[in-house]
Amino acid sequence: MTKPLRLWHYLTRYVDGFLLGGILLLMLTGLFTLYSATDANLNRVTNQALNMLVALAIMWLIANIPLEHIMRIALPIYVAGLFLLIGVMLFGEINNGARRWLNIGVTRIQPSELMKIAVPLMMAWYFDKHEATLRLRDYAVATLLLLLPVVMIMRQPDLGTALLIASSGFYVLFLTGLSWRVMGTLLVAGAGSLPILWSMMHDYQRRRVMTLLDPTQDALGAGYHTIQSTIAIGSGGVLGKGWQNGTQTHLDFLPERSTDFIFAVFSEEFGLVGNSLLLLLYLMVIGRGLIIAANASTQFTRLIAGSITLTFFTYIFVNIGMVIGILPVVGVPLPLISYGGTSMVTMLLGFGILMSIQTHPKLVKT
Amino acid sequence: MSRAVELRNHPRELHHFRLRLAIGAGFVLLLFLLLFTRFFYLQVSQQEHYHTLAEANRISISPIVPNRGLIFDRNGEILAHNYSAYTLEIVPNKVADLDALINELSSVVEIAARDRKRFKKLMDESKRFESLPIRTRLSDVEVARFAANRYRFPGVEIKARLFRQYPKGDIASHVVGYIGRINDKDLEQLEANEDLANYRGSQYMGKIGIEQSYEKELHGLTGFEEMETDAAGRVIRVISRTPPTSGNNLTLSLDIKLQEVAEKAFGERRGSLVAIDPATGDVLAFVSKPGFDPNLFVDGIDSENWDLLNNSIDRPLNNRALRGLYPPGSTFKPFMALAGLELKKRSAQNGINDPGYFSLPGSTHRFRDWKAGGHGYVDLHKSLVISCDTYYYGLANDLGIDNIFNFISQFGLGKKTGIDIEGEVSGLLPSQEWKMRRYKQKWYAGDTISVGIGQGYNLTTPLQLAFATAILASKGAAFRPHLVKQVHNNRNGTVREIVTQPLYTLDLNPDNLTHVRNALIDVTRPGGTAALAGAGAAYSFAGKTGTSQVIGMKQGEKYVESKIQERHRDHALFVAYAPAENPKIALSVLVENGGHGGATAAPIARLVMDYFLLGKLPEEAAAKPVSQGDGDEHAHD
């Protein structure tokens, strides 16, 4: 092998080409949409491109670590995350009425972001350990491992993150083969506890739910977002108004159009055709993730791969659902497209794990 | 071991897992289909509808600011209202050369130096795209003249706006407070409370006093108009209008006439007076002198007036009644006396011999009475009437700091009363635990002695003193002091009364109460420290004088008022309630650097009670001297 070839081999040995291709296409779409959403602000676009490069580097790093190592740190990461969440509860900085950040001297961190990965890792680790003798008690313990951080995050309050972590944990439970009967019971119990959840919610969270039921009720606040984003999407039509030609976007009607509501910009300018292509692109990535999960060799890797992939889907559904007005407005970004570094890193960390699962030699051939 | 088990179960498990995974995939497809259906609905079926909304006519939503609620006193006199007037406003970032523009404007509309200064200050505090007033209250002639010249001034506009006005000026300024322009800090607060939507379009909010504390009631609900605009943003027609709801009107418990009498009685002196109805907790008067004119703040205060107020050594912006901290001095003694009786450390029958000082056993340090040589035989009654210090030094030592703290905190000293305006401070009633926390030192027996006469670490606000006096007046029932009596809902016309249930009622022995209350009546009679202020009163009233030290005296040094700079003189205090048998009013008076409580503070209380109980205006009472005649010992306490 020549030198450059060897370098190429070294760089790509643990990278899943198909997955990477999908991710890069989505990122590119994100950059173009951002350029339009920010009225051709190259600074923001460059900034976001840098975010993406950092996240890709982290993904590559993770992909190079064999899963046995990651499995070993599942428990410590989870425990550390729990302590950090308690720290937030006690000493967290209050920002916009929510207590999410913890100042650890050198920098501020948001432990709930760490838990997005730590919770499925921990649950998968737990099920892997007790794989041979799975009993209902094990499910109860795993559910507790899930609920502890979710409740703490909900109380910060950060409903969006709590929801995503809850779903990532639910996917692990679901994939271990939790019986339908138990799941049905959980569902009924969940529906029964809705009034309790309602009483635990903060005023603004309740208002958001009420706003979903009747957007005109809060036409100057959260309802305004939904009203304007639906107009943007609907007026986009089949073919869209064309890149940088969205009137809703460029006449300043759309709020938060580079972050949580960026899908409205995309949809106004690229129409139903663009939307369909975007969904297909996402479907490609999700499909690849599920295939990786199906081929994974151990309980741990299978559960992790499945949970990461389905959580990725949840992001997409919750974000688009909120922009098109079928879900309440919760702060969930559109993965790989919305502006922002933190969620980009979390997302690609997950993809790094998927790649590692796929590309490292498997213990058991199937 | 576990690995072996896994291998054995492997195929069946894997099958199970893949089945679940397939169900997950189906779930994904189903929900994506749902999304697609919604896309189809919006972008194909309803495309025309939304296309019309977005393209041909664009909907813009503009807020309609509600009228701010009005503030009245308990008799319906208006304390804060709105009037509509024209203002001339400039959007700074639409103007290239501001100075030149303002110069040119002044040829059309009069613009004073004060207007320019205020505008400068506003610009520093606001964003460049905000519309800022350069002139307020334009006359009709000025409006017409500007309208004719409007084309010359792009970026300048005439707007009709509601303005806040405080007709009573500096009377009760610390209570009513003022509104001011919303700044960045306010915006952050509004965002944190998720109130930002309701403040779209609002430019003002309460900054201090009732205006601040009852902002939620006063502001009202913002309405909005949905309008169609053309591509250039010009309004074509109004689609729908949701009218705003005016803020709620407030009726205060304050009697503004009484407040005026009280403020006048202070003259040029600094100080505070708080009067409370002991049966309800209604705050009848709430004085902090000097005050300020709240009207200056409404459109942004100009720097000259601001410096004048902010840098004055009289500190007119400081709410002394709410935030001023002073040692209670001898006004602390009635509560000490009650503590001595209730905890059975003293009886009304037995007295002490006062040599003029108190020393702790085994110590040579002398805690001196204000009267050299002492008062001779002193019992509980006399100790209050002549305000004997030695009696309370000994009592404090016998009670100990824990008993003093536990008993007297029931009267609300050293903690917030919970009054309904923001910014109250808690003061300090010292305790062992506090000293350990604050100074990391244990409590010494010597610390207790001066606490007994309201000095030492003691710090109270005039409001707390009035609250404690009201509890004494109502024989132990504690009502939370409150300034707002009724909230009138402007939407449905209902009136919400502020409920006057006692917070708690102290379980006090009636005999003990009678001993203390009788002594307090004699304080205002010949021979008492407030005899001067009590002379000729048509009703009987109970009171207690006090002085609080501004600078410490060395051992053996003598306080001579005439030799001490005015600002270093003692503060004069007086607490009282009247009529003594069935009190209608309880109050505290503090005169900064006023010297003796009996000489300067008590006469003010008398004027206020005369007006409240008899309707007597101070002009009629003015024949009586108010501040002099304190050469003898009676005036001291």
Considering residues with a beta carbon less than 8 A from a beta carbon on another chain, report the largest interface and each chain's count.
A-B, 58 and 54 residues
**Number of contiguous helices of chain A:** 16
Structural class of chain B: alpha+beta
Morphology call of chain B: globular
Order of strands, widest sheet of chain A:
1-2-3
Rg of chain B (CA only)? 33 Å
* Number of structurally distinct domains of chain A: 1
Helix content of chain A: over 70%
State the separation between the terminal residues of chain A, measured CA to CA. Answer: 31 Å
How can the largest sheet of chain A be summarized? 3 strands, antiparallel
List unreliable stretches of 5+ residues of chain A.
none
Rg result of chain A: 21 Å
What is the first-to-last residue Cα distance of chain B?
Answer: 91 Å
Q: Kindly estimate the percentage of residues of chain B that lie in beta strands according to DSSP.
A: 15-25%
**Averaged pLDDT of chain B, please?**
85
Largest sheet of chain B: 7 strands, mixed
Q: What would CATH call the class of the largest domain in chain B?
A: Alpha Beta
Secondary-structure element order of chain A, as H and E?
Answer: HHHHHEEEHHHHHHHHHHH
List the main descriptive attributes of the protein structure presented here.
heterodimer; A: 366 residues; mainly alpha; three-stranded antiparallel β-sheet; 16 helices; 3 strands; 3% strand; B: 637 residues; alpha+beta; 2 domains; five-stranded antiparallel β-sheet; 37% helix; 19% strand; disordered C terminus
